[in-house]
Write a structure and sequence with these properties.
Layout: H1 2-26, H2 30-51, H3 60-84, H4 89-97, H5 102-113, H6 116-133, H7 136-142, H8 148-156, H9 159-172, H10 179-185, H11 187-205, H12 214-239, H13 244-255, H14 261-269, H15 273-301
Helix pairs in contact: 1-5, 1-11, 1-15, 2-9, 2-11, 2-14, 3-4, 3-6, 4-7, 4-12, 5-6, 6-13, 11-14, 11-15, 12-13, 12-15, 13-15, 14-15
Length: about 300
Amino acid sequence: MFRDILVRVFFLVFVAVLGWIAGRLLKIKTKGLSDLVIYVISPFFACHAIVDSSVGHSFFKYTFVAFAFSSVLGLCAYAIGRWLWKDCRANLFGFAGGDSNTGYFALPVALSLFDSQQIAVAIFMASGVVLYEFSVGYLIVAKGVMPARQSLRRFVRLPFLYAVLGAVIMKECGLTLDSTLSACLKDFRGAYSVLGMMVVGLTLSEFRRPEMDWLFSAMSLSWNIGVQPVVGYILFGWVLDVSQPTLAIIFLMLASPMAANEVAIASSLRVSPEIVAPVVMISTLLALVYVPLCLSSAVFAFQ
């Protein structure tokens, strides 16, 4: 397990470094790539992940649980953020409060560690987190730079929402993708992961000395490493009756580092991505230690 996570973390950091080099040498702008991830790559990735899964509609409960859990945590973090800050940092902290790197980090790790049933659970849970990112999370960030009516208009124009809705309808109607087409669409999974982390590096490259807001960084990391896992452990480990294999996936999701999509959305909406990018990088590096620790302790505690 430790080796798989080690390789995954180093690869993500390597991709971010490539983005930093490309930004410095080629002068690539972050917003163009972040818009590509949000408006083009993510809809195809989510649609293919849902339609191509081999499980029944009952697994959508994991999507709704993940979405509800992320939304409640995000709104709680936003309320705390408004008490701490009077600017866009409150919005960024709120977004981060309900988010984690399930798409770029947790899913690839799950593919290398767990069986097909657990991987299906991971895909549906990750879809719920991504749905939070591009719905409630997007609205929380947008609220910091535009009126509520305008942010809602931006929200309803997100292709991701209609891709998920279309995938759910296809799944319920029993429609499947042609095998050749499905194989082609798998390429979007790699593009989603690689380009998402590259946005982090590109954002850092635009600033000679990236801003380190120490309070924001400490609060975000504490929430990601402390609050999210603890609340999840209590809720899913003791309050709800969740099976052991599913618990392993839930704990992987809870232990995942901060999401690169926060940088992508902040860049797309021009909401101080330079504050978020360094924290995402630090969180990804810390995952090298705390992800194996969380998974090992969780397995031991609920045996």
